[in-house]
């Protein structure tokens, strides 16, 4: 039943995945509502959630533009399932931001296949990886992908 539902790419599938991501994200934020509630912590969690969902859309965009898979929602549900399986990663805003910047760098790296403006694309990808390194140090490993 799930395979027939996610085998096509329709807006309802994306909404279902976003609902799944919402539940997984807010479950991972276990201490947000149990301790002294602060507006700063809630705003930080909302920004982290927005980054999390935006990363999913970037992944979908990369896959669609580069014909990496057929027009289905499997890649998005797998992204949501794998990220939900590590709730500690969903609590850390710098790690989520770093993941977004790495995805943006991979978007530029994947566009190198066209053979146009290679220098600009390599510079953009390097810049995104550098910003990711500023957010989370271990993102420097992705320099290997750029080389």
Question: What keywords describe this structure?
Answer:
mainly alpha; single chain; 147 residues
Question: Overview of this structure, please?
Answer:
There is one protein chain. With 147 residues, the chain is mainly alpha-helical. It has one domain. 72% of the residues lie in helices and 0% in strands. The protein contains eight helices and no strands. The chain has helices at residues 2-6, 11-28, 39-65, 74-84, 87-91, 93-110, 118-135, 143-146. Helix 3 packs antiparallel against helix 4 (74-84) and helix 6 (93-110) packs antiparallel against helix 7. The longest helix is centred in the middle third of the chain and has 27 residues, at 39-65. The chain starts with a helix and ends with a helix. The model has no long low-confidence stretch (mean pLDDT 86).
Tell me the number of strands.
Answer: 0
The geometry reads as flat
Q: Which consecutive residue ranges, at least 5 long each, have pLDDT under 50?
A: none
What's the structural domain tally? 1
**Radius of gyration (Å):** 17 Å
If helices are DSSP runs of H or I spanning 4 or more residues, what is the number of helices? 8
Sequence of secondary-structure elements: HHHHHHHH
Largest beta-sheet details: none
* Mean pLDDT score: 86
Share of residues in helices: over 70%
Report the end-to-end length measured between terminal Cα atoms: 42 Å
**Beta-strand content estimate:** under 5%
User: Structural class given helices, strands, pairing?
Assistant: mainly alpha
Topology of helices and strands:
Blueprint lengths: L1 H5 L4 H18 L10 H27 L8 H11 L2 H5 L1 H18 L7 H18 L7 H4 L1
Helix pairs in contact: 2-4, 3-4, 3-6, 6-7
